[in-house]
Amino acid sequence: MPSTYTCLHYHLVFSTKHREPWIGEGWRDELHSYMGGVVRGLDGQPEGIGGVADHVHLLVSLKPTNCLSDFMRELKKASSAWVKDSRFPGFQWQEGYAAFTVSASAREAVKRYIANQEEHHRTKSFREELVEFLEKSGVSYDPEYLD
User: Fold this and answer.
1) Which residues contact 142 (CB under 8 A, 6 or more apart)?
2) Disulfide-capable partner of 14 in 34, 51, 87, 97 (CB 3.0 to 4.6 Å)?
3) Which uninterrupted H or E stretch holds 61?
4) What is the spatial distance between Cα 24 and Cα 36, in angstroms, rounded to a whole number?
5) pLDDT (tens digit per residue) in 77-114
6) 40: part of which helix (H) or strand (E)?
């Protein structure tokens, strides 16, 4: 085969340190836009970015040359620095993250899910949401590290 063809989509989820509600509604869209620019700068394609006061969701398309852990480290580092410089000096992201692969046929549903975070979190906490994702994906986890 003369070329390599890939379709690598990830649903990424991570929260603020200690789930603090630091991401203000008045500047949340700015943060999401900034994060989209960081994704592009890291040679990825942002397909959806959303969230609420204590966490974010991203749907990104990455190339096979992207190392997910390196990508996440740089995304969180750059966006944290932006928030600290422009909005909230004490801001921090949590140490880890959750990443789930997304099939091409499920991309639109994930985009809708990310776009409707405000509505979704009227009835479900971040912890409940994360546990649901982990269990649905068959990911083993230690409940101690979910808070």
Assistant:
1) none
2) 97
3) strand 55-62
4) 18
5) 999 999 999 999 999 999 999 999 999 999 999 999 99
6) helix 28-41
